[in-house]
């Protein structure tokens, strides 16, 4: 979604801002803009559409300014056009603001500002901010002994309701950029005589490994010499920059046609890294506690739940959206099977407005690749407010989620660029196995030999994934036969039901083919009505408790002439008798099968979408992290 960047230093700002914005493209956006201070004058350039449109404007105007802010906007308030693109200025045209998040009381502020004689030109909630600062600045210049602009920003932001991050420049102070964070994410990067700003630290990490993260309700005054931090009352905050590991955040396709394909292939490594961090050896107890250096992460990391707390959990409540929600559903099967603790999985956006039925014996787990998804964060904070213990599973230790819980499992996937989640899904599911085994160890729920066996099985999974990935060419040939389908059904039972949902989601996200996932047993209760010879049905069927029943459900579809596709185990002769196409997977324990069965489905979606010429990495209408509710 929206992205904020900034630069201040000896170089020309425009190319740096563009390069930072390019790193944020993956988050999804529909317009982009910059504000630079060119020979003492504020210049704003912005354009709807892709970054290339902004690049054309910058190539025309060739600004030489060395200070500026930039933004990619994903429209929420007002259509994606030039006018609504950020930055937004005040009436004097001297203050420019870029903004992520929502100003919830913008309509009241807009009415007040308009009545006071301000002219607001966009439909956005953002524009009120520049006008509020304008008003406060006028007053502060007369009243304040201190720094008028800083005090004006403090006063203006105190009037805002909602969660937001802001980047601000004023032509009166071309030597500074201001950054404001309130329940959002914003980082300052410190280089040698230059400073950077970005809402996603990925954009800054290409230039420097020294980062300062703004915490809740903080303002940073950024100059070429560093950043001074204040709270909203102007109290100075002493915080030093942290040195971070830049490697996992290098954005590169590494020779792959698309990020999505690269990320599908990265799963064995991200799984090994994620599990390896917590499981040293199957013989040793799992350790989720924080490591001294924060695991090399920029942000909080580690699980601080005490043994008493872990033993007191009576119920687990998982909140998440999209793919992370399906990882959570797999987590339910895993936790219930291994720990025998009842688990509910909630679509995070469905939690708002409902009576919270949680208490201090409930562990609420938020699962979010980005750690920034507004719906997930809202549900999570409601659970915390209801007194539940809380824990996050995220790929971004520097995210907002990491700020609001002391218990964080981090998936070691490196940056996931493609909008459609793949490697984060398997790594999140891997975290659930690790967590379940950790709880089982702590609560002595299983004999040590059984826990040892399960750990061993889990650690073998990346090698099984590698075997599937090595069959990529066969999967490609098998998949594109179905590229002309208009509808596709996915079904699985038990622990592979969430995989069916994820398979369907992947296909619709990137190929735009309508697809639905079902619990295989539900097919006969409705979905079977849509089946005919034109509809491919994908069944996930692995040996185990639900094998026979799943095959029966597949027979029901076959009897309706559906095109029959399966994800099934090598050498499964019964499957061969039912399905037209089989994506074969190696033998795997049913309990661990989601980590394997999902791979052919990811590849199938990828090959179909690519065959159809779709924008695989940045599908239409989607954003990588959705930071509004
Ligand atoms: C967006 C993305 C999905 C993702 C979901 C949750 O809708 O397009 O791919 O699964 O957000 O994202 P999160 O970062 O919370 O895992």
Tell me what the structure shows.
- This protein is an alpha/beta fold.
- The protein folds into 3 domains: 3-243, Aminohydrolase, N-terminal nucleophile (Ntn) domain (Glutamine Phosphoribosylpyrophosphate, subunit 1, domain 1); 259-465, Rossmann fold; 472-611, Glucose-6-phosphate isomerase like protein, domain 1 (Rossmann fold).
- 36% of the residues lie in helices and 23% in strands.
- It has 19 helices and 26 strands.
- Helix 10 (322-339) runs antiparallel to helix 16.
- The chain is globular and about 85 Å long.
- 6-O-phosphono-alpha-D-glucopyranose is lined by residues 321-324, 368-370, 373, 376, 419-421, 622-626.
How do the helices and strands line up, and which of them pair or pack?
Layout (H helix, E strand, L loop, with lengths): L2 E6 L4 H12 L6 E8 L2 E8 L2 H11 L5 E7 L14 E2 L5 E9 L2 H10 L11 H17 L4 H11 L3 E9 L6 E6 L4 E4 L4 E4 L3 H4 L4 E4 L4 E6 L2 E6 L4 E2 L4 E2 L15 H7 L1 H12 L23 E2 L3 H6 L2 E6 L1 H18 L3 E5 L14 E7 L5 H12 L3 E6 L5 H4 L3 E4 L12 H20 L5 H22 L2 H9 L6 E6 L4 H15 L2 E6 L16 E6 L5 H12 L4 E7 L3 H4 L4 E5 L8 H18 L18
Parallel strand pairs: 17-18, 17-19, 19-20, 20-21, 22-23, 22-24, 24-25, 25-26
Antiparallel strand pairs: 1-4, 1-10, 2-3, 2-4, 5-6, 6-7, 7-8, 8-12, 9-10, 9-11, 11-15, 12-13, 13-14, 16-21
Bound molecules: 6-O-phosphono-alpha-D-glucopyranose.
The site of 6-O-phosphono-alpha-D-glucopyranose has 17 residues, from α10.
């Amino acid at each position: 979604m929206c992205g904020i960047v900034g630069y201040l230093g000896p170089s020309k700002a425009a190319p740096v801002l563009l390069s930072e914005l390019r790193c944020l493209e993956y988050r999804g956006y529909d317009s982009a803009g910059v504000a630079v201070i060119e020979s003492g004058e504020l210049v704003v350039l912005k354009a709807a559409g892709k970054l290339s449109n902004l690049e054309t404007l910058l190539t025309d105007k060739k600004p030489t300014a060395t200070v500026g802010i930039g933004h990619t906007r994903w429209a929420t308030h007002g259509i994606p056009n030039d006018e609504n693109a950020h930055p937004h200025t005040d009436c004097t045209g001297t203050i420019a603001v870029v903004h992520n998040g929502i100003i919830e009381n913008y309509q009241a502020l807009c009415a007040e500002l308009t009545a006071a004689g301000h002219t607001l030109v966009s439909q956005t909630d953002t524009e009120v901010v520049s006008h509020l600062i304008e008003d406060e600045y006028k007053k502060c210049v007369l009243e304040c002994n201190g720094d008028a602009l800083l005090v004006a920003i403090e006063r203006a932001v105190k009037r805002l309701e909602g969660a937001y991050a802001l980047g601000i420049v004023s032509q009166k102070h071309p030597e500074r950029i201001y950054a404001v964070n309130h329940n959002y994410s914003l980082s300052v990067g410190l280089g040698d005589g230059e400073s950077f700003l970005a809402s996603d630290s990925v954009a800054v990490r290409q230039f420097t490994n020294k980062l300062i993260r703004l915490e809740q309700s903080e303002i940073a005054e950024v100059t070429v010499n560093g950043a001074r931090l204040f709270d909203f009352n102007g109290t100075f905050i002493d915080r030093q920059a942290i040195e971070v590991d830049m490697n996992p955040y290098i954005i590169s396709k590494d020779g792959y046609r698309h990020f999505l394909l690269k990320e599908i292939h990265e799963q064995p490594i991200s799984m090994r890294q994620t599990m390896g961090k917590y499981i040293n050896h199957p013989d040793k107890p799992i350790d989720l506690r924080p490591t001294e250096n924060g695991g090399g992460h920029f942000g909080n990391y580690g699980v601080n739940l005490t043994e008493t707390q872990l033993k007191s959990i009576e119920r687990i409540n998982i909140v998440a959206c999209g793919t992370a929600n399906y990882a959570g559903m797999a987590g339910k099967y895993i936790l219930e099977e291994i720990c025998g603790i009842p688990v509910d999985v909630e679509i995070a956006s469905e939690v708002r407005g409902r009576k919270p039925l949680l208490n201090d014996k409930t562990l609420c787990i938020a699962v979010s690749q980005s750690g920034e998804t507004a719906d997930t964060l809202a549900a999570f904070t409601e659970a915390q407010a209801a007194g539940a213990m809380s824990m996050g599973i995220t790929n971004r230790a520097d995210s907002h989620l990491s700020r609001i819980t002391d218990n964080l499992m981090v998936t070691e996937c490196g940056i996931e660029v493609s909008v459609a989640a793949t490697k984060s899904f398997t790594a999140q599911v891997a975290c659930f196995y690790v967590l379940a085994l950790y709880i089982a160890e702590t609560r002595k729920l299983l004999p040590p030999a059984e826990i040892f066996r399960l750990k061993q099985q889990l650690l073998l999974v990346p090698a099984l994934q590698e075997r599937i990935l090595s069959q990529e060419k066969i999967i490609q040939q098998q998949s594109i036969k179905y590229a002309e389908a208009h509808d596709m059904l996915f079904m699985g039972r038990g622990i592979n039901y969430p995989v069916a949902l994820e398979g369907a989601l992947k296909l619709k996200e990137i190929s735009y083919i309508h697809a639905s996932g079902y619990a295989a047993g539900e097919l006969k209760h409705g979905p079977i009505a849509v089946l005919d010879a034109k509809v491919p049905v994908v069944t996930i069927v692995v040996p185990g408790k639900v094998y026979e029943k799943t095959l029966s459900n597949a027979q029901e579809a076959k009897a309706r002439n559906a095109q029959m596709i399966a994800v099934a185990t090598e050498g499964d002769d019964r499957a061969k008798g039912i399905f037209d196409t089989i994506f074969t997977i190696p033998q795997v324990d049913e309990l661990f099968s989601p980590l394997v069965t999902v791979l052919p489905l990811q590849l199938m979606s990828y090959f179909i979408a690519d065959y159809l010429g779709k924008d695989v990495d940045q599908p239409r209408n989607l954003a990588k992290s959705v930071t509004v509710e």
